[in-house]
Structures are given as structure tokens and as C-alpha cells.
Amino acid sequence: MEIKVITNSKEETKELGFQLGQLAKPQMVYTLTGDLGAGKTTLTQGIAKGLDIARTVSSPTFTICKIYHGRLDLYHFDAYRLEGLHQDLGFEEMIQGDGLTVIEWPMYIQEIIGDEYLEIEIKLLDEDQREFTLKSNGTTYEQLLGELKI
Ligand SMILES: Nc1ncnc2c1ncn2[C@@H]1O[C@H](COP(=O)(O)OP(=O)(O)OP(=O)(O)O)[C@@H](O)[C@H]1O
Ligand SMILES: [Mg+2]
Questions:
Q1: Residue-range definition of the domain harbouring residue 34
Q2: 31 Cβ below 6 A of ligand 1
Q3: The pLDDT value given to residue 148
Q4: Residue 41, ligand 1, Cβ within 6 A
Q5: Buried b / exposed e across 17-46, counting CB within 10 Å, b at 16+?
Q6: Nearest ligand to the C-alpha of residue 11?
């Protein structure tokens, strides 16, 4: 299943993220692809709010993964700096934890992501406009998309 959503501001993107956070269940994986500045971290900030995480999610510059505690823990990966680095850094164990895993630049760690995940692609349409394509891989995520109120 595939759903397209257009947002016209970063607040609308956070609102979409909020819903995705509220609908998250233990061990789910969301992948985020899109150019620099597309809104991957902004969406993740909304997701964190939907998980009742009080801390602000920041874009990690030199950190590959940050953990935030909430209703469900959030494992926020930014794999950008892992390009070309094919090493087992122990991230697999983390993805298998009870929290929600959100991965920016998943192509660099694709081999440790299973077959089931929610694929989120962000396209820059205009300065403040973004198109989100949400694609389910697996029935759990199909159900999740069915519950989105958009
Ligand atoms: N509709 C929108 N949704 C999300 N962000 C928007 C929107 N319109 C404008 N913006 C702006 O675009 C930028 C998105 O930055 P963000 O850090 O979320 O991108 P990113 O995809 O994580 O980039 P990077 O690849 O560098 O990590 C922010 O400055 C935000 O204010
Ligand atoms: Mg980012």
C-alpha cells in the first residue's frame, strides 16, 4: 500500500510525524529517504512527540544513533556518515530492541533492516512544500497506513 501526503509547512510535517509516532508499536522500523533538507529530522521530531518524548530530537552531526525515552523508546539513526562503510557496528541488536527505529539514509545500512518496514520518501516540491510517499512493506505497516487520519 502506498499513500501520498503533501505538507505545506514544517508544522504540518511535524503533525504527520506525530500521528506516525502515536501509531508506532514496539520493534517497528520507519526509513526516511530524501535530499538534504527534505525534512527527515523534522518528521522525526513529530514522531518523537507522538511517542511522548519530551526532549527535542536534534540532527546528530557525528552521532550515528541517539536513543530517546518515551512511551516507546526512539532509536534515531542518521546513517549518512556510514556511506561505504560496511562494518558490523552492532546496530542490528538495537533495531531488535523494543522501541521504534527511525533511520535517515537507510541505504547505507540496508542489509541490517529486515523485510518489513515503513518506507517514507520525501520530495522537495517548493520552499515550504514537501511530498511524502508512505509505502508499507509487510501487513503490520499496511494496517498502520490504514489508521492514518489524513
Ligand atoms: N513542509 C516542510 N516540511 C518539513 N520541513 C520543511 C517544510 N518546509 C520547510 N521546511 C524546512 O526544511 C528544513 C528541513 O530540515 P531537516 O533537518 O528536517 O531535513 P533533513 O531531511 O533531516 O536533512 P539532512 O539530510 O541534512 O539530515 C527545515 O529547515 C525546515 O524548516
Ligand atoms: Mg536530518
A1: 2-147
A2: no
A3: 96
A4: yes
A5: bbbbbbbbeebbbbbbbbeeebbbbbbbbb
A6: 1
Q: Which residues of the chain have pLDDT under 70?
A: 60-61, 86
pLDDT of residue 97: 86
Q: Is the CB of 104 under 6 A from ligand 1?
A: yes
Number of domains in the chain: 1
Going by C-alpha positions, the residue among 104, 113, 112, 114 that lies closest to residue 35 is 104
**CATH assignment of the domain containing 120:** 3.40.50.300
User: 46: which 3 cell numbers?
Assistant: 513529530
Report pLDDT for 108: 85
**Interacting residues of 124 by C-beta distance below 8 A, sequence separation 6+:** 34, 35, 37, 38, 130
Question: Is residue 104 packed enough to be buried (19+ CB in 10 Å), middle (13-18) or exposed (0-12)?
Answer: buried
Contacts 24+ apart (CB under 8 A), 93-99: 94/65, 95/29, 96/27, 97/27, 97/73, 98/26, 98/27, 98/72, 98/73, 99/26, 99/27, 99/67, 99/72, 99/73, 99/74, 99/75
Q: For position 150, what pLDDT does the model report?
A: 82
